[in-house]
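I'll show an entry:

:::
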Amino acid sequence: MDYIYVAMVTKTKIGLLEKLIQIQGAETDSKFAQRLQVSRSLWVQVTKGTKGIGRTLLTGIINAFPELEPEILEFLRNNENSQAKRRPGYQGQIRS
């Protein structure tokens, strides 16, 4: 009996921030921040991890890169889940 060995290749999912950094490439932080319609300091803080991706940056990303909609939705889903689990009293249900 012959056996065929197949190597499994897993596709690493990159996050929204990593995707934006790829898109930025060699463009300066100032120029890229202008494209995102945010301040340079906000963009730098987000890339360094001292600030999270918030509403202002998400709005700029949607306007500048509408093709990133799937990544934005994935980010929001993951972010909402992690935020909800940290809330006091969270028990997995949606409150009204």
User: Anything to note?
Assistant: Residues 3 and 9 are 19 Å apart (CA to CA). The radius of gyration is 18 Å.
